[in-house]
Design a protein that fits this description.
The protein is 32% helix and 12% strand. By secondary structure, it is α/β, with parallel strands linked by helices. It folds into two domains: 6-372, TIM Barrel; 373-571, 3-Layer(aba) Sandwich (Rossmann fold). Bound molecules: beta-D-glucopyranose.
């Protein structure tokens, strides 16, 4: 980097460095900082040419060489271009490492948030944040668009599994723990000058994303996701604001607004909540990053959309399409003063503040020395611990669990029993996830085989078509992977095929254990009697050994429901006074 100016002086106070740098920037350079472009929407050379401030990998945004070294090369390539610009302002690369560095093959995939909600263990969640920080930093990435902090108010929402709990206190506590895990400087870490955070967390989606009403979405087939909520301000404050108050007080420096609306006003256009409340009342000092292409939803007219968003308080615009058009409109708007220049300066100041807080000016390339941490034994052990702690034992009769190690014959059924894809859910290599095992790891079946004693014969049939009768049968059923509004589902009953599988396994098992892989409670009331034991395993991620640990009794079941479990769809969304099948906090030992 060129030396000599105050902003390049590692010893100068950050506030001075920012003031100096801002004073040197042209309008085009400032506007470039205010956009974040999907890596698939930008060509080599364009980061440098357009002074782009940030690039992201959205769901499924992996490089052609989807390995840790392939990621590092891609991210460093963008960074090198940014450093070649006139002022050499480093780039900030962002990714949705919502349950580990999920897009990258070989990463450790932790349980999705709903499972961690059942663990009720902030220390565990914090350690997962730290481990995730190491895995992204190893690939040059400093920014994680996580956690989701809201409590889902309707479990038909396809993002329910991205939340911790219906209980706002549990959700806030765990979200803060996760953020601190990502952001806190590790004890043995030597920070860059002025560096105050390790990686950057993004509490999202501000405000009310989990509280929309069924059928109000205007996006595709979505029903709840990106929908609307008619609600008074006092309720907004009590239902949605507390996790943000807590996150801001604990050092949040990036927050993402929601695609959804309050009283018909899109959050991305809502200057009252973004500017007056979040930045003003709560004193949020960081940057507001729009959701992907959310700004374009504000108006068909790009100029109007940009003016509305930036004036509402957006500091950085996340886009995947036509960033050059958007940059032009922004420049026009500032030149015509439809966006006040002071607003641009405020946005850029916030962005630079975050970049300095991350130490990017002095250490822009992440920490490639951490590559060995990716998918390491230590991280996989942590994930396995998290899996064990997230399991909720819903039913256990006839002393079915724990299973003895040497019991003779054990049948395992269900294609999901042998798939890291099914057990990881959405946001795993691809945006929507898949039943295919794209991530290395340990499937539930492999975990069972590893722990069964030498005298136990384990037989596996995905279809459950066995001949004899096993001492114990294990059947794995549940939801197919999905993400966001694609997972908005009116009926949360088990599929016909899953019901048949359970019924079939009943015939072939003296004792039957059902394991449910799902992003939310499902309607199992009629199937509960068919199995002697039921385990809610949520979306445990790559370390299926953690399920086996609890099945064989090496560790106790300690998970407690973070969402009440409805008896029927009539109880969804939940009404006060409804008698759940299993209440919030339920979980057998
Ligand atoms: C999601 C965000 C995510 C972004 C970038 C959007 O579709 O709503 O939560 O951070 O994509 O992948």
């Amino acid at each position: 980097m060129k030396q000599g100016h105050t902003y390049q002086d590692s010893q100068a106070p950050i506030i001075e460095r920012i003031r100096d740098l801002l004073g040197r920037m042209t309008l085009v350079e400032k506007i470039g900082q205010m956009v974040q472009i999907s890596k698939d929407g930008i060509q080599p050379g364009e980061v440098k040419q357009y002074f782009i401030g940030s690039v992201l990998s959205a769901g499924g945004g992996f490089p052609a060489d989807n390995t840790p070294t392939g990621w590092l090369a891609m991210v460093n390539g963008f960074q090198a271009e940014a450093l070649e610009t006139r002022l050499g302002i480093p780039l900030l690369y962002g990714v949705d490492a919502v349950h580990g560095h999920g897009n990258m093959v070989g990463a450790t995939i932790f349980p999705h948030q709903i499972g961690l909600g059942a663990s009720r263990n902030p220390d565990l969640v914090r350690r997962i944040g730290e481990a995730t920080a190491r895995e992204i930093l190893a690939t040059g990435i400093h920014w994680n668009f996580a956690p989701v902090v809201v409590s889902a108010q309707d479990i038909r929402w396809g993002r329910t599994y991205e939340t911790y709990s219906e209980d706002i206190c549990i959700a806030s506590e765990l979200a803060t723990a996760y953020m601190l895990g990502l952001q806190s400087l590790p004890q043995d870490f030597e920070p860059a000058p002025g560096q105050t955070i390790y990686t950057l967390a993004t509490p999202k989606h501000f405000l009310g994303d989990g509280g929309t009403e069924w059928g109000t979405s205007t996006t595709g087939d979505y029903q709840l996701d990106q929908g609307d909520r008619t609600i008074g301000e006092a309720d907004v404050r009590s239902l949605f604001l507390p996790p943000y108050q807590q996150a801001v007080s604990q050092g949040a420096l990036s927050i993402m607004p929601s695609y959804s609306s309050l009283n018909g006003i899109k959050m991305h256009a809502n200057s009252y909540w973004l500017t007056d409340v979040l930045k003003g009342e709560l004193g949020f000092p960081g940057l507001i990053i729009s959701d992907l292409n959310a700004v374009q939803q504000l108006s068909d007219d790009c100029y109007e959309a940009v003016v509305t968003a930036v004036n509402a308080g957006m500091d950085m615009l996340m886009i995947s399409l036509d960033f050059k058009g958007l940059l032009n409109q922004m420049r026009r708007a500032v030149e015509k003063e439809d966006i006040p220049p002071a607003r641009v300066d405020d946005a850029v100041r916030r962005i630079l503040h975050v970049k300095f807080a991350l130490g990017l000016f002095d250490r822009p390339f992440g920490d490639p020395g951490l590559q060995e941490a990716i998918g390491s034994d230590a991280h996989r052990q942590l994930a396995r611990e998290a899996v064990r702690e997230s399991l909720v034992l819903l039913k256990n009769e006839a002393e079915t669990l724990p299973i003895s190690r040497d019991l003779g014959l054990l049948y395992v059924a269900g294609a999901k029993a042998d798939s890291t894809g099914s057990q990881s859910g959405g946001w795993t290599v691809t945006w929507q996830g898949t039943n295919a095992s794209l991530q290395p790891g340990t499937t539930i079946l492999e975990g069972i085989r590893a722990l069964a004693g030498p005298d136990t014969t384990v037989e596996y049939q995905p279809s459950g078509e066995f001949k004899g009768i096993a001492d114990v049968g294990i059947v794995v059923v549940g939801e197919n992977p999905y993400a966001e509004g694609v997972g908005d589902r009116e009926d949360l009953g088990l599929s016909h095929a899953d019901i048949q599988l359970i019924e079939g396994m009943r015939e072939h098992s003296k004792r039957l254990v059902a394991i449910l892989l799902s992003g939310r409670p499902m309607i199992i009331t009629d199937q509960v009697p068919l199995a002697d034991a039921w385990v809610a395993a949520w979306l445990p991620g790559t370390e299926g050994g953690g399920v086996a640990d609890a099945l064989f009794g090496d560790y106790p079941f300690t998970g407690r429901l973070a969402y009440a479990w409805p008896r029927s769809m009539d109880q969804v969304p939940r009404n006060d006074g409804d008698e759940a099948l299993y209440p919030l906090g339920y979980g057998l030992p």
